[in-house]
Amino acid sequence: FDSIVLYNQLKYYKIWNHFCKYVVGFCDTLPFFKVVYPGFDCYKQEYLAQKVLNESYSAHNSLADSEMLQTLVKSSGKVDVLLADFFYSTVQVTSHGVQPSVESIEYLQKQNVISKATLKKIKCSSLSYNHLKLAFERKGFDGVFFLFSEKTSDGKARVSSNYKVAKKVAEFFSSLQ
C-alpha cells in the first residue's frame, strides 16, 4: 500500500525515475509477519512490538515507526525469508497496485494455473514460488504432487492431494523449459 502512495506522489512530481536509481524495491511486511507469527489476533505494528518485543513506541512518529519496523524484522531472524518471498521490485509498482512478479505464486494464480483457494493454502504452508520450482526441477510432476500432498500434523494435505492441481503447476513449469 505505502509503495503505491509513494509511487503516485513521486510520479506526480516527476522524480520516480530518480528515486529508482537509489531504491530497487520494497518488502511487504504484513504477509511476512503473518507467516512468521501465525495466529496473532492483530498484525498492527504497535501490537507486534508489544507482543514480540514487549516494547511500546510512538507509532505516529515516522522515525520511531521505521526503527521499530527494522527491529521487528531483525528480531524475527528471518530477513532471508522476507527478501526471498516478500520483496517486489520498483518495476512491479504501478498507480493501480503491485503487479506480481513472473516468478511468484501470485503470478500462478493470475495466469489461472492455481485457484485463489490454492494460493491461500500455499501461502499458509509457507511455500514460495521457488519451493514449487525446485520440487518440479528435482522430480517433475511427482515432486510437485508430493510437496502439495505431504501430510501435516493434523493428517491433512499440506496444500492439496488433488492430482489436477499438481498437474497444472507441473505443466506450467514444464512450459518454461
UniProtKB/TrEMBL annotation:
All residue ranges annotated as the PML C-terminal domain in the record: 102-175
Molecular function via GO: nucleic acid binding
Domain of life: Eukaryota
Protein's UniProt name: PML C-terminal domain-containing protein
Organism name: Magallana gigas
